[in-house]
Design goal:
alpha+beta; Beta-Lactamase; five-stranded antiparallel β-sheet
């Protein structure tokens, strides 16, 4: 199993949570990896988030040495969470604005750690 497939499994587990409407592993300049079964009703919002994700990486890059942990955007009924994994990878999660942030934060952190281990793992001939 390759890294992409492993990441898809981890993201799929996060997406099983009731309050997680969408998630992806965003990669600077290259889009990202998105599991099937997104629950976002506003497809235009999801497309906008996906198309502008690359614009967040310069901000992540500037604050990375200060150990940036999360960026939150509140857009009406949605909250978008960016959880940087490295300067080129970030976990992106969309939840309802009224979701239980304590529970979500724990799950986002757990997912971030699992994905980081996968992305950073050295394998001969393997890339992400």
């Amino acid at each position: 199993m390759g890294k992409k497939e492993e990441v898809l499994i981890v993201l799929g587990d996060l997406l099983k949570m009731d309050d997680v409407l969408a998630c992806m592993l965003a990669k600077q300049g290259l889009g990202g990896v998105t599991p099937e079964g997104l629950k976002v009703k506003d497809v235009n919002l999801w497309n906008l988030v996906k198309s502008t994700t690359n614009e967040i990486f310069p901000i992540i890059d500037k604050f990375f040495i200060y150990k940036i942990d999360r960026l939150y955007f509140e857009l009406g009924e949605y909250t978008i969470i960016f959880a940087p994994i490295s300067q080129t990878f970030s976990l992106l999660v969309i939840i309802p604005s009224l979701a239980n942030m304590g529970l979500i934060d724990v799950e986002v952190e757990n997912t971030k750690r699992k994905v980081k281990l996968i992305v950073e793992r050295k394998e001969e001939g393997a890339s992400f």
